[in-house]
Write a structure and sequence with these properties.
The complex is a heterodimer of chains A (123) and B (110). Chain A is mainly beta. Chain A is 0% helix and 53% strand. Chain A has no helices and eleven strands. Chain B contains no helices and nine strands. Classes of the chains: A mainly beta (123), B mainly beta (110).
Chain lengths: 123, 110
């Protein structure tokens, strides 16, 4: 069955970086893009960006541009999300999800999700 | 990119129908049929309920349906059940090749 298994919870200090992993199984990793979404405490879901797992091309949300980097390791079917210069308002649950794409690589929907990774930023 | 506009909360009694609206602009909801809806229970991963405006993934109850008119998409849940109580989010692809979420709607089953 299709699964996305994320790495465990992290606690970081302001200004540090965090790298969350998302290991895919049950399908051909390079056939589907991966997206990242976060939910801050008491807030809604926020789209962070996506990566084409075949080409490595990325698109990021404007708000996070310059602080976030999405990468993949196709040899292990693993996607990574690195967020730098962490602030307290980056405290959130971070999710990876598989993307269903449209005919021209439009980001159509997110059909399988990881279990979420809690990242806490505190001094 | 501003978030899509959803009502903060809706409620209904078991067996009733409710509709959640999702209003965007001509740069997102109005531009493409790439609107999707997610159900999110606390401490669980979101679940895809509707994709490409009105399509249901395998395994999702046919009590869930979606539609779109202009810049507004809608999710309708008929025959409300207690298990439907959750937060619901819409998303849309945008003309900037990004994705925007709605602010979320808390559904309460009375």
């Amino acid at each position: 069955q299709i699964q996305l298994l994320q790495s465990g919870a992290e606690v970081k200090k302001p200004g540090a970086s965090v790298k969350v992993s998302c290991k895919a199984s049950g399908y051909t990793f390079t056939n589907y893009p991966i997206t990242w979404v976060r939910q801050t405490p008491g807030q809604g879901l926020e789209w962070m960006g996506w990566i084409n797992t075949h080409s490595g091309n990325t698109i990021y949300a404007q708000k996070l541009q310059g602080r976030v980097t999405l990468t993949t390791d196709t040899s292990t079917s693993t996607a990574y999300m690195e967020l730098r210069s962490l602030r307290s308002d980056d405290t959130a649950v971070y999710y990876c999800a598989r993307v269903g794409a449209g005919p021209y690589d439009e980001i159509a929907f997110f059909d399988y999700w990881g279990q979420g990774t809690q990242v806490a930023v505190s001094s | 990119q501003s978030a899509l506009t959803q009502p903060a909360s809706v409620s209904g009694s078991p067996g009733q129908s409710i509709t959640i609206s999702c209003t965007g602009t001509s740069s997102d909801v109005g531009a493409y049929n790439f609107v999707s809806w997610y159900q999110h229970h606390p401490v669980k991963a979101p679940k895809l309920m509707i994709y490409e405006v009105s399509n249901r993934p395998s395994g999702v109850s046919d009590r869930f349906s979606g539609s779109k008119s202009g810049n507004t998409a809608s999710l309708t849940i008929s025959g409300l059940q207690a298990e439907d109580e959750a937060d619901y989010y819409c998303t849309s692809y945008t003309t900037s090749s990004t994705v925007v979420f709605g602010g979320g709607t808390k559904l309460t089953v009375l």
